[in-house]
């Protein structure tokens, strides 16, 4: 997606709000883009930045070819600043560095833009510091905050931004996009449950790590139902060495959640197209016989709790050990 017309196809309301502001030369000093992962937050932030800096803009559309547009694409524009979480949060020191950058006027124009990815991870000290920008906005400064969880952003920040809600993408439409890229329907269904980002989904489809992650997930579910006493050993010898990084650990829990949802869906007779991993065979019948509906609901709650603990920076080995014990009960 490179134009506001492209954005309008998946986020028509967001596109209309921003382009109307551009037409009227009434760009807000601060935007809060809130929506699920893959709904276009980064694309919108990048496109808006290009619109503000482009030297050959046609109406609302940036040219994509001038020096400003290309440097924004490469992340090298001197007057556009990206702030991302350092490990699990955005820290006070990162905002202090931004403040120092803003002491000086723009190197090429008076315009400055800063984009905060994962704004919900701002520490309290960082939140209080960034309020200065929002309370005393420079005429030529635009802030773009992005989040999947706006309720975690302090109200004083939310109240000073123009909030733009991005709607979830249609999963069927996204699946068809993946199928059009040569991905099998079954894999397209799986990928659409994990991400709304086309490039990311295509990358995962050809990734050996992801393929192995799927195999390990299926093996672990089967071990829980057939050789439950081996689960702890499997976790330490196979699971933890494979899921090393925090995003991988979260993805592993997402895969387990989808698998246990599959078993629950078979229990309650959901439609075949809702099943991600287990199609009608002896394997799924055995899993349905082993896990009751009550136990499956308990496991799904355990998985949600495990994801919360990872977000809270609990050690991933401890999280998986506790989850294994809970499922074994």
TrEMBL record:
<dbReference type="GO" id="GO:0008408">
    <property type="term" value="F:3'-5' exonuclease activity"/>
</dbReference>
<dbReference type="InterPro" id="IPR027417">
    <property type="entry name" value="P-loop_NTPase"/>
</dbReference>
<dbReference type="GO" id="GO:0006261">
    <property type="term" value="P:DNA-templated DNA replication"/>
</dbReference>
<dbReference type="Pfam" id="PF13177">
    <property type="entry name" value="DNA_pol3_delta2"/>
</dbReference>
<dbReference type="GO" id="GO:0003887">
    <property type="term" value="F:DNA-directed DNA polymerase activity"/>
</dbReference>
<dbReference type="InterPro" id="IPR004622">
    <property type="entry name" value="DNA_pol_HolB"/>
</dbReference>
<dbReference type="InterPro" id="IPR050238">
    <property type="entry name" value="DNA_Rep/Repair_Clamp_Loader"/>
</dbReference>
<protein>
    <submittedName>
        <fullName>DNA polymerase III subunit delta</fullName>
    </submittedName>
</protein>
